[in-house]
Amino acid sequence: MSATPSAPFYKRVAPGGWAAVAWGAGIAFTALLRIPVPGQEGPDVLPGFVILRWDGLSMLAVATLLTLRGSALLARRPTAALNHLLVASVIASTPLGVTAIPFAQYLAVDVALYAVAAARPRPEALRALLLALGLLVVYVAVRLLAGWSAGTTSTLAVALTALVAWLLGRSEGQAREYAERSRAQAAAQAVTAERLRIAREMHDTVAHSIGIVALQAGAARRVITTQPEAARQALTEIETASRETLAGLRRMLGALRTADRETETRPETTPAAPGRTTTAPSSTATAGGSTTAAPGRTTAATGGAETSPGRTAISAGARGLPEMPGLAALDRLAELTGNAGVRVAVRRVGTPSPLPPDLDLSAFRIVQESVTNVVRHSGADSCTVTVDHHDPGHLTVTVEDRGPAPGHARVSPGPGSGYGLTGMRERVAVLHGEFTAGPRPGGGFRVTARLPLPTGVTDR
User: Fold this and answer.
1) What pLDDT is attached to residue 33?
2) Which of 131, 184, 270, 274 gives a 20 to 30 Å CA spacing to 96?
3) Nearest to 222 by CA among 408, 413, 412, 414
4) Using an 8 Å Cβ cutoff, are 334 and 344 in contact?
5) What is the C-alpha end-to-end distance of the chain, expressed in Å?
């Protein structure tokens, strides 16, 4: 059974079908006006003598055939269809002995005006309206020039109903055009949002990876003569990290090309952040606010890597981060960053609760980018990451360092491009959270993101 609801009945009938129905209703109404009905002493309108003869009935038959032909053409050739219906209304009015085209004989024309105004461009719809109103004016003018009586007020009423039908059709057409533009705009915004997300992922991947690769290369350069084996391991890790980063960039660029080819839908291939052996920090995981070494870790945050030239602290067999990391990967992030020369202490305050994937990923990316900035720009040899679950309605992550450490060089001496802070601020804004970044009172730098938790998470 299909889950898609069927269209309403009135939309399933083509406009030409409704025009034919309107013509039949008009003929029936005309007949009722000319015959006595129960409750009345006589008919409302005396039938003209012509309609009772063969020529009058022939005119009605010809008008009906023209109407059916026009109804069949309405969807494909609306202008030709309207011409058929207008001629039919004049022919049908002739044997009735009336002074103006009656409303009943113009019902099919009104339906056609509505259909043309709703489906055709404005200039064509406007020409159809002028044609329908012009016929009414010409009919009255011909009777006046011939010296016959003319139903001017009746013609005005019929013209008003035609105008109303046209306006209703234009209203529906404009609503349809607006809906189509809104869908196209939403599709374009989805593509733009996907591009921005990919750009943030690319920045997170490249900036953090290159920063740690630079630290590893510096350590290898310092110990290449005294500890060749350690330098060889560092160079191996640099090669592995570079290859994985390039692979991740290829996946992201492939996603961007997909977005170019499919501009009306979001790319279904979500470029996962590449498994990054270089983008990771080392950690000490703590619960309840205390800093203790994470169980199972071979390198604690406080002892992962020294900044002295004597050690590179890079394990050749270290694995990178998962493709879609979350806060559970902070320990691995801390371990890898510690191996590159910056110790990272991870503190977890309160009881963790399951997080939505987008919020979990964004929180991790904020921490990752903040740690990247510490590695590249601060000159610090350590930093602290705090994940606070105390507030049941919010998740707060804080990354702070104490400033430059003696003998520890910056990877990038300059102040940085500022894209990292902008990307973090955008991530927090998308989640309707609060973001602050600035110098600490006692020296160093602090980044804090306060992210609201969905109701389903806080109720757990």
Assistant:
1) 78
2) 131
3) 408
4) yes
5) 36
